[in-house]
Amino acid sequence: MTLISQEDTLVLERLELQDLRPLASFTQVTWLSLSMNQIEDVTPFPRPLQPPGRRNDCLD
Q1: DSSP secondary structure string for all residues of the chain
Q2: Taking the mean position of all CA atoms in its chain, how far away is CA 32?
Q3: Does residue 56 contact residue 50 with C-beta atoms inside 8 Å?
Q4: What's the pTM?
Q5: CA–CA separation, 38 and 32 (whole Å)
Q6: pLDDT tens by residue, 26-53
Q7: Which top-rank group of organisms is this from (predicted)?
Q8: Where are the domains of the chain?
Q9: Is the backbone of residue 53 left (phi > 0), alpha (psi -120 to 50) or beta?
């Protein structure tokens, strides 16, 4: 089992953070654009016309 010094651990953590920073910003932009697209694309669907006296559910 290899022991890693605390200094090496800090260097590794710093490298990981640097590597993940572009991914994190890309993910934020992607989620933001997805959520904005969903907001723009949500349109209410017209309800089908029901004959008079019929209920909307089909549990007769």
Answers
A1: -----HHHHHHHHHHHHHHHHHHHHHHHHHHHHHHHHHHHH--PPPPPPPPTT--SS---
A2: 8
A3: yes
A4: 0.21
A5: 10
A6: 666 666 666 555 555 455 556 666 666 6
A7: Bacteria
A8: 8-44
A9: left
